Amino acid sequence: MKLLLIEDEITLSNIISKGLRKSGYAVDSVFDGEEALEFMEINEYDLVILDLNLPKIDGMEVLKRIRRENVDIKILILSARSSIQDKITGLDTGANDYLVKPFDFQELDARIRNLLRRSFTQENSVLSCAHIKLDSAKKVVLVKDLPITLTKKEFSILEYLMLHRGEVISSEEIIEHTWDSEVDLFSNSLKFHLYSLRKKIKELSDVEVIRTIRGHGYMISDKLEEESNE
Ligand code: CA
Question: For the whole model, what pTM was predicted?
Answer without folding.
Answer: 0.82
